[in-house]
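Memo to structure team: turn this sequence into structure tokens by end of day. - J.P.
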Amino acid sequence: MKFTDPVKYIEFLNDLMLQKNASDMYLTYDEPPTFRIMEEVYRDTTLEKLGDEQLNQIALTLMNKTGLDYFEKHGSLDLGLGYKDRRYRVNISRQRGHIMVVSRLLRKEIPDLKSLNLPPIFRELAYRENGIVFLAGPTGSGKSTTLAAMIEEINRNKKKHILTIEDPIEYVFTPKESIIDQKELGKDISSFSSAMKFALRQRPDVILFGEIRDLEGIRNAILLSETGHLVLTTVHSRSAEQALNKIIGSFTSDEQNHIRTQLAENMSAIVVQKLLKRTDKTGLVLGQEVLLNTTAVANIIRENKLNQLRSVMYTNRLSGMQLMEESLMILLEKGMISIDQAIEAANNPEYIKRELINRGLIG
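Reply from structure team:
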């Protein structure tokens, strides 16, 4: 299709994403539209390369006046958009002085915990009355989808007030047993910090906070959990240990002991996710690391002995904890991923190599 009208071209590309079963689409300067399919990127060479005029028209069509003002100030903008019966998460930014647009196709339906094949511990975490649950992992690892499934679990089964604070709103929930209010940055709120500050006055039971981005966000999340709320949020990290180091390391040395104490008292769990391409059939499969806050874990956090967390997770496997490497070994033994994938995805590749020998999978 030739680019003549930005609205029709955007609709054409959205339809193309659905036809190709693509998870993401990239519109960037001097490249044709490019699609991510099963975690691999493919240029559509049947389409013309995009220039500045086309990219500018696409961006302006996607943004409203408020969005344009925000983009001009910050240089990047996240949007949640609907097309037909689907929703897309869109990011507009600049690279080398040119506009670039990245669009992610969200699931058609809000998933439940069972459909995602998540272990029972997720239901238990969703039903807790307070504390912070951190979902960690790289971009595109399914963190938002897992959080949505946890919110939907509460929505279907508990009479709660759920408040989401997002940039942008990704999944639109239909209230069932719970009442749900969803706030979007730039539309309903001016900043995450102000939204979390005033959340206490809105009497929520559960707060979904899209992503912790700064010190104020961490402080507010801890405050909300201390005052009897269940807080669900995301961080970017490869392991539970790295997530804690990242959070604690954000503070000055004078504040770190206090933050360790607060985390030890208020953290419920850290779950790390990685999406891997299946080798047995078409699709993706989830590898996970689960750290639950027990007395032993809380003491490790307080005493700043985070290098001992792996040992605690290993010895508490029966209580729901799990190392990423153990999750990968389960997937490997089921024939869902390859040895190379397991080694590449592991936080400790030597652990995988040792287990392969111990379990007789390699000589």
